[in-house]
Write a structure and sequence with these properties.
The radius of gyration is 39 Å and the shape is globular. It is an alpha/beta fold. α2 links the parallel β2 and β3 (65-70). The protein is built from 48 helices and 50 strands. The strands form 10 sheets. A 7-stranded mixed β-sheet has the order 3-2-4-5-7-6-14, with helices on both faces. A 7-stranded mixed β-sheet has the order 18-19-20-22-21-23-24, with helices on both faces. A 6-stranded mixed β-sheet has the order 11-13-12-15-16-17, sandwiched between helices.
Length: 1531
């Protein structure tokens, strides 16, 4: 900010924000909402964003903390903690918060807090907000122009520091509307006035106290030491008047309540001279405040030449009449009086304004008024008048009438809205009344009604929070009634009041009374009413008998309403005016977490205490990651715990982004509960424009750790013999656990749900992680006791396992050389031990954008900014692992091995000595990182004196996947033992390789991985299960069964994969076997869905030719069955009961036989697909075997053109790896196709690379051997020859959406499922809708290779019912852009362990940001194939897309262009490591250019090649050649 000392300032709020920023440690910025800036906050954020330095803040960069608080969330609670911690606090706000915060104001008055208050409403402010709190003990200063706002803001901060008391600076911002910009006051002037020595004394001495409301007796005291506040002239001694005492900022006097109330004009008492006890410092009085402020103004005048007084007089020295203005734009009156004509009644009058409003100094007012003045008109702009006489009028009367002076008449007037056009008229009225014989008191001047304007701090429902109200609408439809909805007409009551729980509760009670009255009216009408027909009476009588029953009233309501409409008599119309009451309404109050603070919690208490059948939905928006920063003094109550203690209420804690089903269950149970119900709903966000992804990640952390447990508490359960409490998540908070223990609910639930027993009793402290580190290291040191040799500590940070493997191998070698070796992750190392190490080695890989891997960050964060580490006695070396080509752009070269380089530099700076120069392992070297490592390791042993040790043992080779398979006894391993181990949610690394063959991967939730580490917990392990579903065909019954598995055993969602099958996520280990069994009960399986075997065989869904499709699909089923593994391990592990002892082990083990695979199966995965021309919707060229169906002359399947050697996997920057398209082998007849596939697979089994898994796919085997050689080996093994390929052509590789008829007259509907994710959200109940459709569907469901689905084989008669269901659940919508319809993404975060960036969760967001550009350029309907993956393994087949984004680091992607629209051509790298802003900057102009330059029918990928933007890729070995952005070897 120092550089900004001469900045131009345009508004009072900007001026005030600048001064507050300079003069505060913490600024509480009160805002309308988190998404909407106030007039202050926009400037504060701008200063902080530029890292402008303040004068007061003690942070390392001198940037004060900006704490944004919603205006209705009790903002002054945020002041207590920082001010008591010795941090100077200011608050920027409108006056709307003052009266609700009055309890806090009294407590904060004796602390040096500054409130900058913009009076509201703007243009016609209500000064009653100030007068109502005038006796709260604060000092009040007023400014009335832009320049004054800045000067008085400085004064307020300087005065708070000098007096130790709170200062409120208030102003009407609209009064400065006509002021031009000013030059901001110089920073040095502010520094001079603040007196930084006093500031530092305050900051160095925190204040005791913890209560918020109770009086702790604190009083601001006058300091013992005087401080010079004005500078004497040169050579002159300071006069006594130039040296004034300064209040003690930290002094405290615990006086009695009586003695602490010092009169505003009293002088401090002197101590008795008869005692030897030193007198206590006197309390700061009104007189001291006056001395301080006038001294500050005197110094300000010296520095800038502007003068201020407690009361300002403007006018002739001999005026007889005056007006004292306490309202908006006093300058209007001053200007008008100055320009008065002699004929005006206010000519020669004076204007008085109060600069120092409190303490009120009557003597200073008298001194400011010339003795010639006889009459004074007091104008007060107090809109909410509560007394007959205005508060300022009483002040003036008291001051003037009790003193000798010339004033004879004082008249009070109420000031309304005055403009430049009406001020003259207003003054004439005022002064004519003033000089009259009998002046009228309390006369109103100006317009009572101000011009229409929007309220500054009106309430609005954040867009994100509509999620829960939408669910209410979905559940209860027209029955739901939200009493405090912001869209209701509340007859002039303000939004703030009408949205409160008290108001809403009253409205609900009134609503219930109205319905009771309505029921009575209906009874009367049913008995004696005059209708035109008889139907209404019968319907009404039936309704009355069910009036208290939800189901009964709903069933009869429609009949009643229909009969009344038909009758249309006067009585019918009268009853229909209140037809909402025919249904038993579900009555709700909806509020925010503002109701959890003290000033909002009373309304919640009223509801609970009433026992009324009222439901409350309270939405909490505090992000989990900010909960630690939350101010303890904000006293946010646990409403759930509070309500459960009442005993008469239903309570639920829910989170829509964690469990949609649980939200539905809780809201339904709350509605049915006869009594108060409170549903707490978690929806964390930093700003109301946050993406759903941010909300999801915050929710998952909060629920997983137990910060926001999911539970339901239902007192009605006692009647059913069930526990009141149901836990719907894993962990609970300590406070909740204490409550449950007391009520014995925890014991009941643990008996009912024993699997929760262990986790329910866990408590997590903030020091647990440190204790675990210390315990682990001490235990290891004990193991090393007694060993000889020098110590060597090896710490690693690894994100892909390489650094960890290197560290462990180095440790083994060190022990073989006689060293006492310790190996551990950096995050597990107690950093305080670092100075005591003798020899230490760091091995780190490189993550993200040159960052430390996750398990290295804690240590790096601890040492990088340390100022205390002394490592003079430590010897060290660093081995860094990275990839010099990973960041191709020159400006990004710094990221190559950056963590290792940074660590090496910092350790050296702390005085540590290098054992060996840093080693740099580069993946681009001939032997990868080993090249650099092999140069570095010998230097390390040399430095440690153990280079030439004889008799070193041979090191065992590392265990490979081939070893694991061979030792597994045909895929058994120790999987059963791992599943039975309840001490962990994981299985062993070896078993996790084997379970892939069984169709399941172990994963962990990466959204919460870091937080669980911080809490001392293992990762949140779960399993992904993939089904084997040849050709992607499911029956409706199977769909329902899959839906049930997802809901009860998974994470409530399903994924339709790019391989035409179902995939489940979030299956915890204890539910893994039940899930497998449920899948098999559905007549599906998971065996060989993953692993080094032939996986799920795909087949084009082809809805338009069902007969032909059936023939082709039969071949996919035949191939799949033929190539299944034969091991019985799958049945033994997953399909036997726990007590079934069929499994044989050890010497009695069944010896399986794998006729096709053998004991080591295949070198790598093997994938087969079938495409049916003209649709290449399964990407036939992307697979190990691609089969192109050929129709014979008779219209039936003749056979297949067979391609081999396609594959999508690659590794970034490793040119030895690449995607490849299948090469044509020839035509094979339908009856031979399964055998031909078998023989291709067997040649790969015997000749594929089993040493290097990155080179093990069939594509590399064919490329190494040559197509002809490989084909010859297949034909030799087969005993047949491939025929010449038959002609065919492809039109596209995307799905065709909407309705179509096949040749048999059956109907099919292709439905758009974005990225294949089946789930329910508040906006879109897709999962529920598809389940309802499956219940009535009589055909089948086909999954597509593009992650969509087809409702197939539907009779004409069944179409209307399906269309109705589809419309109800919005599943008939295919009106999306061509880009979105042609897009595809893999899962990536949070479950895929290989993901480097987001994919499924991000691609829809990116497309949304491009769709306006598509629309603008006439491309909305054009199909452009865009795909995204989180890593280069290629699950969504990105290398064949016209435009693809492949994750490289979190938020960064490689961009590829030029893929063939038919899936026939690979794309090529266009840009590397670009982020969203760069993606949009590239794509938008490119799309515009494409729209202008394309030829008829030319696709985007083809155009990028013709336009010279990218070179065409002929085949995989050409993939890295001629890329648009060459990778350099420069570092």
């Amino acid at each position: 900010m120092a550089e900004d000392s001469k900045s131009r300032v345009s508004t009072p709020e900007e001026a005030v924000a600048r001064i507050a920023y300079l003069a505060s440690d913490v600024i509480v910025s009160v805002q309308p909402s988190l998404a909407s800036d106030s007039e202050f906050s926009a400037h504060l954020k701008r200063f902080a964003g530029r890292k402008d330095a303040g004068l007061v803040a003690t942070t390392s960069d001198a940037v004060p903390e900006i704490l944004s608080v919603r205006h209705n969330a009790d903002p002054l609670l945020s002041v207590f903690t920082p001010i008591r911690a010795g941090r100077l606090v200011s608050v920027t706000t409108t006056s709307s918060i003052l009266l609700p915060s009055i309890a806090h104001l009294y407590k904060l008055a004796n602390l040096p807090v500054v409130l900058h208050v913009a009076l509201s409403p703007r243009n016609s402010p209500d000064y009653s907000a100030i007068t109502s709190i005038r006796n709260s003990g604060w000092t009040f200063l007023q400014s009335q122009s832009l320049q004054e706002a800045e000067d008085i803001a400085v004064t307020a901060h300087a005065l708070a520091i000098r007096s130790g008391k709170g200062v409120i600076h208030f102003f009407d911002a609209s009064s400065a509307a006509g002021n031009g910009p000013i030059t901001g006051v110089d920073v040095n002037v502010v520094r001079e006035l603040l007196n930084l020595d006093s500031v530092r004394r305050f900051q160095a001495a925190p204040i005791s106290g913890s209560s918020i409301y109770a009086d702790d007796g604190r009083v601001a005291l006058v300091a013992d030491q005087p401080e010079r506040l004005t500078r004497p002239s040169a050579g002159a001694a300071a006069s006594p008047s130039q040296e004034l005492e300064v209040a003690s900022l930290n002094g405290t006097s615990h006086l009695s309540s009586k003695s602490s109330q010092i009169s505003g004009t009293s002088s401090p008492s002197t101590a008795s001279q008869a005692t030897t006890i030193e007198p206590a410092a006197p309390a700061v009085t009104s007189e001291e405040i006056y001395k301080y402020v006038t001294s500050i103004w005197a110094r300000l005048s010296e520095l800038v030449g502007r003068q201020y007084n407690a009361f300002e007089w403007t006018g002739p020295a001999k005026a007889e009449n005056a007006v004292l203005v306490f309202g908006a734009d006093a300058a209007l009156f001053t200007t008008a009086v100055k320009g008065a004509q002699q004929s005006d009644s206010f000519a020669n009058a004076g204007v008085i304004t109060a600069r120092l409003y409190r303490p009120w100094l009557g003597a200073k007012l008298l001194a400011a008024i010339p003795r010639s003045v006889k009459r004074v008109a007091v104008l007060e702009q107090v809109l909410r008048k509560t007394t007959k006489w205005g508060p300022l009028l009483i002040d003036v009367l008291t001051s003037i009438k009790s003193a000798a002076g010339g004033v004879q008449t004082i008249v009070g007037s109420q000031l309304g809205y005055i403009s430049q056009n009406t001020v003259g008229q207003a003054l004439n009225t005022i002064f004519k009344n003033l000089v009259s014989d009998k002046p009228v008191q309390n006369m109103e001047v100006g317009e009572r009604e101000q011009p229409q304007q929007a309220a500054e701090y009106s309430l609005e429902k954040p867009k994100l929070e509509t999620a829960y109200t939408k669910i209410l609408d979905q559940l209860f439809g027209s029955r739901v009634y939200i009493a405090n909805s912001l869209d209701k007409d509340n007859a002039g009551v303000s939004d703030t009041i009408s949205a409160s729980p008290e108001y809403g509760f009253g409205a609900l009670l009134a609503r219930k009374e109205r319905r009771q009255k309505f029921v009575g009216e209906v009874k009367e009408a049913a008995s004696n009413g005059r209708f035109l027909t008889e139907a209404p009476k019968r319907a009404l009588a039936s309704w009355v008998s069910n009036a208290r029953d939800i189901k009964g009233t709903d069933e009869t309501a429609e009949k009643v309403i229909s009969s009344l409409n038909i009758d249309n008599s006067r009585l019918s119309r009268s009853l229909l005016d209140n037809k909402a009451f025919f249904r038993k309404e579900s009555l709700w109050l909806v509020g925010s977490d503002a109701w959890a603070y003290d000033l909002g919690n009373s309304g919640v208490h009223h509801v609970l205490a009433s026992g009324e059948n009222v439901n409350m939905l309270i939405i909490d928006s505090t992000p989990y990651s900010e909960r630690a920063a939350a101010d303890a003094n904000r006293r946010k109550k646990d409403i759930g715990l509070y309500a459960m203690n009442f005993g008469n209420a239903y309570v639920a804690s829910t989170a829509v982004y964690s469990s949609y089903t649980q939200v539905l269950q809780a809201l339904d149970e709350a509605d049915k509960f006869n009594g108060p119900s409170i549903v707490l709903a978690y929806l964390p966000y930093f700003g109301e424009t946050d993406s759903p992804l941010t909300v999801l990640q915050e929710t998952k952390q909060a629920v997983d750790i137990g910060y926001w447990p999911l539970y339901r508490w239902n007192p009605d359960n006692e009647k059913k013999g069930l526990p009141n409490f149901s836990l719907d998540s894993e962990h609970i908070k300590k406070e909740l656990k204490t409550f449950l223990d007391r009520d014995n609910q925890l014991t009941q639930m643990m008996k009912k749900e024993p699997q929760f027993g262990a986790v329910l009793s866990e408590d997590y402290g903030t020091e647990i992680r440190a204790q675990q580190k210390r315990k682990a290291k001490d235990a290891y040191n004990q193991l090393l006791e007694g060993l000889f040799g020098a110590p060597l500590t090896i710490l690693f940070a690894s994100d892909n396992g390489n650094a960890q493997s290197v560290a462990k191998r180095l440790g083994t070698r060190g022990r073989a050389r006689g060293l006492k070796t310790t190996v551990m992750a950096m995050e597990d190392y107690p950093v305080e031990d670092l100075p005591t190490e003798e020899n230490i080695v760091f091995i780190t890989s490189t993550a993200g954008q040159g960052e430390f891997p996750q398990n290295g960050k804690p240590l790096w964060d601890a040492i990088k900014d340390s100022t205390e580490l002394d490592l003079a006695s430590v010897r060290y070396s660093v081995m860094a692992l990275g990839d010099s080509h990973y960041w191709p752009r020159k400006e990004d070269r710094v990221y190559y091995n950056k963590p290792g380089k940074d660590l090496d530099r910092v350790l050296s700076n702390f005085g540590a000595k290098r054992l060996a120069e840093i080693g740099l392992g580069d993946d681009q070297d001939p032997d990868g990182y080993q090249t650099g490592y092999q140069e570095w390791e010998p230097k390390l042993w040399e430095a440690l004196g153990v280079a030439n040790v004889e008799g070193l043992p041979d090191e065992p080779p590392p265990i490979t996947n081939e070893d694991i398979k061979l030792a597994s006894n045909y895929l058994r391993g120790t999987i059963v033992e791992g599943l039975n181990d309840t001490s962990t949610g994981a299985i062993s690394a070896e078993d996790s390789q084997l379970t892939k063959f069984h169709g399941t991967y172990m994963q962990d939730d990466r959204d919460i991985r870091d937080e669980r580490k911080a809490q001392g917990l293992e990762p949140a392990y779960s399993f992904m299960i993939r089904c084997r579903l040849p050709g992607g065909i499911s029956t409706p019954k199977q769909w329902i069964q899959m839906d049930e598995i997802a809901s009860t055993l998974g994470n409530e969602t399903m994924k339709l994969t790019t391989r035409q099958t179902f995939q489940f996520h979030g299956v915890v280990k204890g539910k893994l076997k039940p899930a497998m069994q449920a899948i098999n009960r559905a007549l599906m399986t998971t065996i060989a869905a993953c692993g080094d075997v032939n996986r799920n065989v795909m087949c084009s869904p082809l809805p338009s030719q069902s007969g032909y499709h059936k023939e082709v699909w039969a071949c996919s089923k035949k191939i799949s069955d033929h190539l299944l593994p034969s091991t019985t391990a799958y049945h033994e592990i997953w399909l036997t009961d726990d007590n079934d002892k069929k499994t044989q082990i050890a010497g009695d083990a069944v010896q399986d036989f794998e006729p096709l695979y053998g004991p080591t199966y295949l070198p790598r995965k093997f994938k087969i697909t079938i495409a049916i021309p003209p649709h290449n919707d399964t990407d036939v060229y992307a697979h190990d075997i691609g089969l192109i169906a050929i129709k014979g002359a008779d219209g039936h399947l003749a056979g297949f053109n067979l391609t081999a050697g396609g594959g999508m996997g690659a590794t970034h920057n490793n040119k030895k790896t690449y995607p490849q398209v299948g090469r044509m082998f020839g035509f094979v007849k339908a009856e031979d196709v399964h055998i031909a596939c078998e023989k291709i697979m067997l040649v790969q089994r015997d000749h594929g690379d089993r040493k290097n898994r990155k080179h093990a796919r069939l594509k590399y085997t064919i490329d190494d051997m040559g197509v002809d050689v490989y084909k010859a080996k297949v034909e030799e093994l087969w005993g047949k020859k491939f025929e010449e390929p038959r002609p065919f052509h492809f039109d596209s590789n995307v799905d065709v959406f909407g309705w179509t008829k096949d040749e048999t007259g059956k109907n099919h509907f292709t439905m758009f499922i974005e990225n294949g994710r089946i789930e329910d959200t508040a906006d879109f109940q897709m999962k529920t809708g598809l389940r309802e459709i499956a219940k009535v569907l009589k055909g089948e469901i086909r999954l597509t290779g593009n992650q969509h689905l087809i409702l197939s084989s539907i009779d004409d008669a069944d179409v209307p019912e399906l269309k109705k269901l589809m419309a109800k659940y919005k599943l008939d919508n295919i009106d999306f852009s061509g880009l979105r319809l042609s897009s595809s993404a893999c899962v990536a975060f949070p479950t895929c362990g290989l993901a480097m960036a987001e994919s499924e969760r991000y691609l829809p967001v990116l497309i949304s940001k491009l769709e306006a550009c598509l629309e603008e350029n006439g491309l909305r309907q054009d199909s452009i194939v865009m795909r995204m993956t989180g890593c280069p393994n290629g699950c969504a087949r990105p290398w064949l897309a016209e435009v693809a984004f492949v994750g490289k680091a979190y938020g960064a992607y490689n961009m590829y262009l030029g893929g063939g629209y038919h899936g026939q051509r690979l794309n090529k790298l266009y840009r590397s490591s670009i982020k969203e802003d760069e993606i949009l900057a590239i794509m938008k102009p490119m799309l515009k250019r494409y729209a202008l330059e394309r030829e008829e029918g030319e696709h985007f990928g083809d155009w990028t090649i013709r336009a010279g933007i990218i070179k065409a890729t002929a085949e995989g070995r050409d993939f890295h050649e001629g890329v648009a952005e060459e990778e350099s070897d420069e570092e």
